[in-house]
Amino acid sequence: MRVCLLASGSRGNSTLIEVDGCRLLIDAGLSGIETERRLSTVGLCGEDLDAILVTHEHHDHVGGVGPLSRRYDLPVYIDRQTHAALPKLGKISDLQYFSSGDSFSFQQLSISPFSTTHDAVNPVGFTIESVEGKVGFATDLGMPTRLVAEQLKDCRILILEANHDEHLLQDGPYPWSLKQRIRSRHGHLSNLESCSLLKEVSWPGLEALFLAHLSEENNCPDLVGKEFRRTLSDCGHSPEIIIGRQSRASFCFETVVEKVS
């Protein structure tokens, strides 16, 4: 099992998840060339990928979906309404629709899309399960709903949004309308809200926590690391914390399943 945030932020998002020999991208918000460059930093190339999963239609999540799919003949799994909101996506030879709340199989994996609150037509998060365990992915959340919390329980690896510090956003350079959008029920999770969600889903089996979609203007990696380490300490758990960056791929977390002899 291997996970890496290839890019995370307001200018492009893409996450590599390798489970049970299957390599997926959740979102592809970088150009095809830049995605290739970042894959190379973890020893992979586009031909090594098996599929792309799409969370929602915003450009920082889908800018490279069409080029990558066409270049490497990758299937794209996407909600039907989200696809309809992307008239410039171009031809995808293997387009697979899913419905939020309905799990589907891909190779040896069980993938479950679940609804999130964000200002998109039908945004989703994902859980991915196999014999190696469960990976949970939830970014671009306006609020941590009960459904999201239930879906993210019992994850071995968790990718969670930590977009902004409330005080930095309040005092920062954004116009008031944008601040209101970010803080709304259809915007992004603050560090405080994300820590609250983490308290609900943290458990002794959580091995790695990826913190994603940090605002470069309204957050600080050192602040984020401190707040989440304190939250996990309060929970009595100590998973590895990896903070995503916009400019480079994150540390690549790898774990193995112990084989029973």
Give structural attributes:
alpha/beta; Metallo-beta-lactamase, Chain A; 7-stranded mixed β-sheet; 28% helix; 26% strand
Walk me through the structure.
With 261 residues, the protein is an alpha/beta fold. Helix content is 28%, strand content 26%. The chain has one domain: Metallo-beta-lactamase, Chain A (4-Layer Sandwich), CATH 3.60.15. It has helices spanning 32-40, 59-62, 65-72, 80-84, 146-151, 166-171, 176-183, 191-201, 221-235; strands at residues 2-7, 14-19, 22-26, 51-53, 76-79, 95-98, 104-106, 109-115, 124-130, 133-138, 157-161, 208-212, 240-243, 253-254. It has a seven-stranded mixed sheet with strand order 6-5-4-3-2-1-14. A seven-stranded mixed sheet has the order 7-8-9-10-11-12-13. Helix 8 (191-201) runs parallel beside helix 9 (221-235). The longest helix has 15 residues, at 221-235.
CATH topology: Metallo-beta-lactamase, Chain A
Count of helical regions: 9
* CATH architecture grouping: 4-Layer Sandwich
Strand content: 25-35%
Q: Helical amount among residues, as a percent range?
A: 25-40%
Look at the helices and sheets and give the structural class: alpha/beta
Number of domains: 1
Report the radius of gyration as a whole number of Å: 17 Å
Poorly predicted runs of 5 or more residues: none
CATH-level-4 superfamily name: Ribonuclease Z/Hydroxyacylglutathione hydrolase-like
Task: Round the mean pLDDT to the nearest integer and report it.
Answer: 95
Top CATH class: Alpha Beta
Shape: globular
Widest sheet, order of strands? 6-5-4-3-2-1-14
> Can you count the beta strands?
14
